[in-house]
């Protein structure tokens, strides 16, 4: 996984010595919040140039669309019919679902029940006479649950806080050394696997216990919410920083044959804050997104609960997805500094 600036940019990039400064810098050298470092960077530039900075765009809240309500099933079993299922244990599953716990079950528990019913139905049907009413009821219920299983999966994505908070704004931004990345990858991979098995009707292969294992890991770290928040925030900060530096006149900053004191000062600011602190952090975010964005895509992309704004962020074929926006906004900012060093003829050291 490449966490450095894109190779095309390096070929036309700043002098080699600046890139070396980036590569040898360690993330542990800064303990401030990344947004604070970005703000300090722009404040130092604006104070030096006596120019007002540009305020970053306020992030938009992203909310999932509530799934439609399924019509209540008309298939019912009498007490006598339920008692007749003792040989296949399906009666226990149905009874547990129908008790108070089952009626107040979470969306994940509801999904688990649907899958467990489908998995148990075939064995149960093998013990019944296929000419009986109860055989037809169990068979119809199984087919109905199979047809609606993706609805229950999407309802879980919408209702379970471990999943729906992924897209909500938060005050927590990803730190320089966050915990939970590998656990988040594992948890989302488990959910993607279950969704794939449902879509391909490989119901017998679904491990329903992994549903709750995944939710537990996601709840423990809340890594995805912080990552998406931080990436969106960094894009906004990059864009406002680039808009700001583009207001600077090279003619005023580094006039031919005159003192270039201000130019040298802002060069130092760029190196100290952007190259040594912000750029490595962005490389870190990029690395996480390269792995996690495809998982977000497989879970949420173009599902009926997903709004278009989220689809834009996770569309792997779009130049405007979250990963590409982050990379592009960083490139755009560095390109201005390339022109700065070339125009002002200032040594980076």
Automatic annotation (TrEMBL):
Domain of life: Bacteria
Source organism per UniProt: Pseudoalteromonas fuliginea
The protein's name in its UniProt record: DUF3080 family protein
């Amino acid at each position: 996984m490449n966490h450095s600036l894109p190779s095309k940019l390096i070929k036309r990039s700043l002098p080699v010595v600046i890139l070396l400064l980036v590569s040898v810098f360690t993330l542990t050298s800064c303990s401030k919040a990344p947004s604070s470092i970005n703000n300090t960077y722009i404040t130092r530039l604006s104070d030096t140039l006596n120019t007002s900075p540009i305020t970053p765009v306020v992030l938009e809240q992203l909310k999932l669309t509530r799934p439609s309500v399924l019509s209540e099933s008309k298939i019912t079993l009498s007490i006598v019919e339920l008692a007749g299922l003792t040989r296949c244990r399906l009666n226990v599953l149905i009874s547990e679902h129908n008790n108070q716990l089952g009626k107040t079950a979470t969306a994940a528990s509801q999904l688990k029940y649907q899958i467990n019913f489908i998995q148990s139905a075939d064995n149960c049907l093998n013990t019944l006479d296929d000419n009986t009413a109860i055989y037809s009821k169990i068979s119809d219920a199984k087919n109905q649950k199979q047809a609606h299983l993706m609805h229950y999966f999407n309802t879980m994505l919408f209702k379970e806080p471990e999943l729906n908070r992924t897209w909500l704004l938060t005050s927590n931004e990803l730190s320089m050394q966050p915990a939970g990345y590998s656990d988040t990858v594992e948890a989302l991979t488990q959910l993607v696997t279950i969704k794939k098995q449902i879509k391909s009707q490989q119901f017998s292969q679904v491990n329903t216990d992994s549903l709750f294992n995944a939710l537990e890991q996601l709840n423990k770290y809340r890594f995805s919410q912080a990552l998406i928040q931080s990436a969106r925030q960094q894009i906004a900060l990059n864009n406002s920083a680039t808009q700001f530096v583009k207001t600077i006149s090279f003619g005023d900053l580094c006039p031919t044959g005159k003192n270039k004191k201000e130019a040298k000062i802002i060069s130092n600011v760029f190196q100290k804050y952007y190259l040594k602190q912000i750029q490595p952090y962005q490389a870190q975010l990029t690395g996480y997104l390269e792995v996690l964005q495809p998982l977000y895509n497989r879970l949420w992309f173009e599902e009926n609960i997903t709004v278009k704004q989220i689809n834009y962020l996770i569309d792997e074929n779009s130049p405007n997805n979250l990963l590409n926006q982050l990379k592009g906004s960083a490139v755009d900012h560095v390109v201005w500094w390339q022109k700065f060093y070339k125009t002002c003829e200032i040594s980076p050291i």
